[in-house]
Design a protein that fits this description.
This protein has seven helices and no strands. Helix 3 runs antiparallel to helix 4. With 153 residues, it is mainly α. The protein is globular. The protein has one domain.
Length: 153
């Protein structure tokens, strides 16, 4: 399966899934994308102290924080970014995941869950450098695709 086919299948799965399944998928995926080890590479000069605290709080409470609370934490994070374009990849992944999750909580748009799925696939790709023409050849990528299918099918 090439990357375009993978994207199309993930989109189809999200569109066709029941409401409970997409919610469970979103919760598991956002939790995976804000895991503490992704934040370990952040340099102290990338985020202000307030932004680091807001990011840690949002990540630790991602499943219990309200959309408004998450919006506030994201505003603090964005205001506290101290670099122009070189934010640590793990931190960037977590911030993007929080942003998509906040938007999903607020507007219940499945497109945000599609974005979470793609961020999760990219996270695995970052670890294993999957082949774009045979994206599922790497066992880790095949496992991530199966996780997505299992939760949404």
């Amino acid at each position: 399966m090439n990357y375009s086919e993978l994207e199309a299948d993930v989109l189809r799965l999200i569109i066709e899934a029941g409401e409970d399944d997409v919610r469970a998928f979103g919760e598991e995926t956002v939790t995976r994308l804000v895991r503490p080890e992704l934040l370990r590479g952040a340099a102290e000069d990338e985020l202000s102290q307030d932004a680091r605290a807001a990011l840690a709080n949002a990540c630790a409470n991602v499943l219990t924080i309200s959309a408004d609370g998450l919006r506030d934490e994201l505003a603090t994070i964005y205001d506290g970014i101290l670099v122009d374009d070189d934010l640590d990849g793990g931190v960037l992944t977590a911030i993007r995941a929080l942003s998509h999750w906040q938007s999903y909580l607020e507007q219940n748009r499945r497109g945000e869950l599609y974005e979470l799925a793609i961020r999760s696939i990219e996270d695995v790709d970052h670890e294993v450098s999957a082949d774009l023409d045979d994206f599922l050849a790497a066992p880790e990528m095949a496992a991530e695709y199966e996780r997505i299918r299992r939760l949404l099918a």
